[in-house]
């Protein structure tokens, strides 16, 4: 006779184990989608992905630098306008006080001119537009009222300009925050990839970086190089003094640098002010081919010009490469060279 007993239900413990196993399978399959089926990324694959992320982070860094520079410029302009408005308001108050003194004098001599009395309680623009009012004013009063009118218009324009710049500043700050978040996201993603490597693989990559970052005691001697201008030589010498200094996005020295931070700082030490970002630096001087380069010239890489360094001679560039590296010499052939610029 067939049994009609209900099948035994799995225990709660077994259900939990099965659920956990299923979740783990989902995670593993997701990881597998990012790597070769059933395998983790190799050291060379991780390095390639990390290098790409560092390049993207540097692109975002230069946009971040541009927004930061614009923010600082706007803040200075707004401060100047606000100072002008404050001084203008003081001048306006003095002009009004002067007109008030005229009114007092008129009162003592027999009464206040109706037009002046009317002005003192309202806006002078309404009265200067009326010929009948002007006919009742003395030439001195007309001149005083026109000065007040001009000053009021000037202040209104300056306040409107300040308002526009404040709006621009707010949007620039928003852009700055977005770019900072983008840079940090790229760097965090790169670090996550690096954390998948074994201790030995990490050590091997570190050794490769050490070999790439040639000894900071090594120098390119400019003593017999007459091709570099005195300014370029001074800028290059300043950059040499920072060999071994770490790359940090958004940094412009003296203890850390990004690519354009190093070049702008180096030229500042030579008494030359150049723009902060690589894109802006690319437009400040005469463009050069590789064969025309002299030591200290600016050299630009990648189609969007997001990387810049200083030419070091013999096909070498002195630059701040990317996160995780230090200021170092490197072959210019390691990156897609675009052109040079002589400051």
Tell me about this structure.
- Helix 2 (43-108) runs antiparallel to helix 6 (139-194) and helix 8 crosses helix 9.
- The protein has a six-stranded antiparallel β-sheet.
- Strand 2 and strand 3 (307-313) form a beta hairpin.
- The longest helix is centred in the N-terminal third of the chain and has 66 residues, at 43-108.
- The protein contains ten helices and six strands.
- 25% of the residues are buried.
- With 343 residues, the protein is α+β, with helices and mostly antiparallel strands.
Task: Tell me the layout of helices and strands.
Layout: H1 12-34, H2 43-108, H3 114-119, H4 125-128, H5 131-136, H6 139-194, H7 199-212, H8 230-240, H9 259-269, H10 278-281, E1 286-288, E2 298-301, E3 307-313, E4 316-319, E5 328-331, E6 337-342
Antiparallel strand pairs: 1-6, 2-3, 2-6, 3-4, 4-5
Our measurement of the CA-to-CA distance between the termini, rounded to an integer number of angstroms, reads: 101 Å
Q: What value does the average pLDDT take?
A: 79
Given as residue ranges, the uncertain stretches (5+ residues, pLDDT < 50) are 1-7, 10-38, 130-134
Order of helices and strands: HHHHHHHHHHEEEEEE
Structural class category: alpha+beta
Give the strand order of the largest sheet, numbering strands 1, 2, ... along the chain. 1-6-2-3-4-5
Helix segment tally: 10
Gyration radius, in Å: 34 Å
Bin the strand percentage: 5-15%
Using the alpha-carbon principal axes, give the shape. Answer: elongated
